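Notes from the 1:1 (GR / supervisor)

We went over the backlog. Supervisor wanted to see one worked example end to end before approving the batch request, so GR pasted a single chain during the call. The sequence is below; no edits were made to it. Supervisor asked that the structure be written out right there so they could see what the output format looks like.
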Amino acid sequence: MTNQLQNISRVPLLIGEDFEWGLAMRMDSTDRFPYNMSLGAINGKYELIEQMGAEVGRQCKRLGVHVNYAPVVDVNININNPVINFRSYGEDKNLVAQKGLAYMKGLQSQNIIATAKHFPGHGDTDVDSHKDLPIIPHSKERLKNIEFVPFQKLIDNGLAGVMTSHLDVPVYETKPGLAATFSKSILTDLLKNEMGFTGLTFTDAMDMQGAVKNFPKGEALVEALLAGNDVLETFEDVPSAFEAVLRSVKSGKISMKMLDEKVKKILKAKYWVGLSDFKPIEIENLIHDLNTPKSDFLNHQFAEGMITLIKNEDNVIPIKNLTSKIAVISIDAIGETPFQTMCKNYTTVDVFSLPPNDSISLVKWVDSLKNYDFIITALHLKEVRASAKYSLNKYNLQSLKMLSTLKNNLLCVLGNVYSIPKIDQLENFKAIAVGYQNTSYTENALAQAIFGGITFQGSLPVTLNEKYKLGDGLISDDLNRISYGIPEQVGMDGAILSSKIDSLVNLGLAEKAFPGAVVQVIKDGRTVYQKAYGFHTYEQALANAPIAQIKYETGIKTDAMDQFTPAVTKKIEGSNQAEIAGLVKVDDVYDFASVTKISTSALALLQLTSEGKFDINKTFSTYVPSLANSNKADLVFKDMLTHRSGLKAWIPFWRNAVDTITTVNKALLVNPELDTAFIYLVKKPSFFKRLFGKKTTRTIQIIESVDSIKGLWEQCLLPNTITWKPNIFSPKATPIFSIEINENLWMNQNYLHQIFNEIKESPVNKQQGYVYSDLHYYYYPQMIKSITGSDFDTYLKQTYKKIGANSLTFNPKKQHDLEKIVPTEYDSLFRGQLIHGFVHDEGAAMLDGVSGHAGLFGNANDLSKLMLLYLQKGSYGGERFFKSEIMDEFTAYQFKEENNRRGIAFDKASFDPKVENAPRLSSPESYGHSGYTGTFTWIDPKANLLYVFFANRVYPTRNNSKISDLNIRTRIGDAIYQSMKE
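Structure output shown during the call:
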């Protein structure tokens, strides 16, 4: 449209628009910034508001707009103000001046004309000037000390534009009913001569009844020019306006000198904004260019800075005990809200959504809600205008009244702060937090602060009542829990990070290294990247088309004061992924494989070592007495945990349960050609026996053959030949066959003794050097139980629950829906089916799914919490779980002189540059582990960084090494480092 207007004009047009909180105030498909009242709640951080002004200015320039009718610098002293209200920075004149100045500086740094409004000050009115003429009854001294302060501050610092207001100010204009817009004494004598303003003066909209009701048609425009205005804004009848001005010039009412002065000022302004070198706006990539990472960064920073805690009895916020039973209720919300989703990131919560105009549903829930330890209530108020009662009505007020009777009820108001005094029984809420407006940014920030991921730091920009006054705001405790944001908040380049990770994961998908994946990156305790890719299986991927995503949030348009058409709030966060079968989601549950070692065994040893109950320098038999008389009695834990003890690499326990003779005989029947591959014992009879008809015999040597001929056993071991030794497996459960391998295979519980006996009797070769072995980890569940008195799973979950990592579990089908669990391999031999909901590792499967080396399942977010606990050296959520010096010991190279790369249980970067087991750019202090199924996590204390990568690379077969061949997992780590700014 700007191109069309400029094209038909002989002289480049000076185009202005009302973008107080950014382009989204008037336009769809653009980012929106907070209202001024929200920014008013932020303590300090004026540089961010200046950056916002610069960003809005850049967007204006990209759009072909040269004048932004902002900032609003009215001091909103009147709580009943229907026009300014949330558009003001607040009621403190100095804060309004400082924040308005910051916005002005940002805009004008981009050569966009900032227009401070509404002079001489619209903050203390209770009449809507769109409909009538408000009266300002104050003295000159009062106006100079309050209303004029922000305007003078901006004028003194080079303000380019002022917008006048349709206000009756009797102390400066003696003519009754004459608005400031038409007052020479106000605009010329006061604004220009006394206050020193030399920029462009704009009228407010000339279609507002407060402006034009006392003038004949067209005359208001003439009087506005005579009073001192340079630009007339928004009038309905352009031809009549032109004729009225022309008549006044011809009659001499408007002198040519005055007209020339105004024209010169406008031409100078056009030159300053760059219209002397006018070029049409490029339409290509316009939406992309208008929606930038900078806007996203600022919105995150603003939201975290403005959320305000005004009540917090007994320091109930942040919630410290994540094992509490918590309900999260969103009032006036349809479906799960971003607020509820963010709460779920911290721990298990039950969510309830109460749609608009519905309080009946809550009646049904109230009794059950009494059983919760905490009730977190989020009030989602769509409308911010006083005329719309801030969206408060009999339904949501009745709901709040009911909820206020419950114990430990925390209220979060996501809407205009002036709505708070209109809520009954405020005193009954244990805590009250203010979000100022209903956006995904404020929803996410509030939820994080409630759970101690970030802190409340805002303060009230206005006085609400006798109890909640200007400047009130409590600083909440920082519990050093995981927080969520974007890369730019921690000094990373989000564009580089996302493009590099996307390209690497998409390479893996294209090469069929895995059907789907999840990546989560945490820097400085903040999750800055959390994304799911692909599908659980290749078949599901083929059945579904690619999914488009939209990142911007449309918000509402009824917040613009001259927009009276009701609108429906709509947030666009992305596509509806939940309906697509098999689509990977960030909270899907994966089989950790060997990442189990550092998520279970290492955790237990760290805690027990810190408590003095375990010593890595003691022997195996010290904690496992059953090994006292074995060749493993004197093996030292430190050696076993660094894979240098001489233990055998592995034992194929399930294969040892196969009846070899029967299986081979079946294979020979199925494939007679195998006969030539076997070793036979040939016995020739003696001469006399041959004489009596005795023939030469050939006896197949089955055991010798399968032990010595490479690949022969695999040729015999087929789905239709495999036969188990008797009394080991059963197709159904019984009191004896109680260990579930899968739905159709149950193991004799007594066979556990055989498994551990095989480990006990296995050879030890202390001269073999570094050999990766899982065998000692099989004993850890019983060892931990012996030390602590608790089952391994129970002991670990005490910690998992405290940090909110509730998805972490053995035997996931008991806790998670099957569609949330990502399948691994199709096992045609041992289990005869797709492994889905059961552990992939055969040894762990035979231990009833619980082992120290494999068997743990969970989602990336919860594993990230555990890894953050490690990165923070044992501290999380305000609690210490183990000593920091013990963590340092476990994650250091133990036998560097031997080129052994291991820490205690943790893997570390290899000394051999050809071995890419870790990101090349990681520091020597870094550590982590990989998993056979495709999982990986890496932690770097020097960079204060960690990341988690999940993929089911073994689907449908383990004979797929592309994830390692392509070095996907470690290259993602390097991409993360490359996104970190110097």
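Supervisor's comment: DSSP finds 35 helices and 29 strands in the chain.
Batch request approved.
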